[in-house]
Fold this protein.
Amino acid sequence: MASEFDTSSLGDALVILGAAGIVIPTFARFKINPVIGFILVGIIAGPFGLGQLAVNRELRWLEHFTIQDTEAITPFADFGVILLLFAIGLELSIKRLVAMRRMVFGIGAAEMLGTAAIIGMVLIAFDWPMRSAAALSLALAMSSTAIVLPISGTKSAVGRAALAMLLFEDVALVPMLFIFGSVGGADVAGLTNVMLLGIGVIVVMMVVGRIALPPLFAQAARTKNPEVFLAISLLVVILAASATSAVGLSPILGALVAGLLIAETEYHSEVEVITAPFRGLGLGVFLITVGMRINVVEVLQNWPLLLGGLFGVLIVKAIVTGILLRLAGARRGVAAETGVLMASPSETTLIVLGAAGTAGVLASDTVAFWSAVTALGLSITPFLASLGRLAARRVEKEAATESLEDPAKGRTVIFGFGRVGRMVADMMSEHDRPYLAVDSDIDTCARLRAEGYDILYGDVARAELVDRLGLDKAAALVLTMDDPVLTARLARRVRSQHPDLPIIARARDSVHAAKLYKAGVTDAVPETLESSLQLSEAVLVDIGLAMGPVIASIHEKRSELRAQIMKEGELTHEPSLGKRKPG
């Protein structure tokens, strides 16, 4: 009996490891999110895929390619989600989390409760009992931490908004489960006790962690043994998750706190790198379990109801999330992309459905139906992410049209938004000066607008677009494109129409700078000139020359180049080459 169990477990492990070895490199080669691959593996290798065929005696060999003990891999899937929350904590910090508190308990609470209220009202309109409608609506209002955050990250505007809402949902999961437990006969007063115990445990973890973690990881680092460092990292995660789980809170909350504490130390980067393979594999196991829940035959038999339920949930959640983010001041593209990305149900939806079914709040067939809807929703989340990006691009185009129709007075207009244009925009923002950037790469525009840059899509080679940018009201025009011919042409055209507008242009070298001055720019900054002079200065000083003579020679060389540009550009004054004297 024991040997059979061991053989079965070994077979399941080989299927999972084999799937990871195939899915990750294959999907990376074609630039497809591996989430889809792991879910497909779950569908194929699960009980509703090859598992059904393996029952046939002639096809028993298929057992070697199926996961036979589905319950045995669930703890590994849960551990993958725990490591994911731990990694999120490493990317954050306690200061950053405190700074997000308004978004977590403001937008996060409004999104979850608002979505649940609308879904609940629809269910009540279809004669659902109040209690059942509340349970199902709260379950469906949750979004997937395990899938959404690896797609969105936590540093972009979309990632920060998603993280805030998901953090509130993770916190809200605890009282929800206790409420269902109390309905099923548990002690209602237990909820208060557990919450108080949980707060106490987290406070103790914070205090002990700040004191114990730095010397603990310092000792691990001194061994110069990666295995010791990994063992300490996993031990911290397991202890933190076990501590919160022991008092009735979610273990992922403990993992998040552990990550936050380590993020405050100088060892967080090493911990993040060393635990990444375990996190990726654990998350893959979780996604495989999602695929194993999808009964393809049942989906095909009941596809109108399943798809109707799924699309109803997607539409409500996307609209509510998008509207709330817009009301909170988010850009249109950020609101649209986040709304679509967060629209599908969550892995925690399955937990809440199970708790509600156990408590008798939801019937077993209802739990089974909405579990299938949830599994389908989780499987299409990567497609929703792509759809969200498309939606963001579309609404940003509309926003760009409005920017053209109502140009702001006194803003600086930047043509081209590569590394140079972004640096100019960053410095403008640093000094609270308005700007508008224009770039012809739609992917760049959508991505950077989502990050908070004021950028619109357009081809500045088209005269009609330039005419609509309101350069008559602009403070300055900055030309940063890596196209010498287009830069000179634009400089001539804009100067002829706006003789008093300051035009600052990026030049390749001194020859190009002379041409741009001749075309009418106010300032031309040769990108190779200053870097070459600074490099020469560093070399001369490092090989032992005195600083004074070196600086004098650099100034002399710069003056020679200015004189050369002045002559070639037919200038009546010496060009500044971007250098300004203080004063």
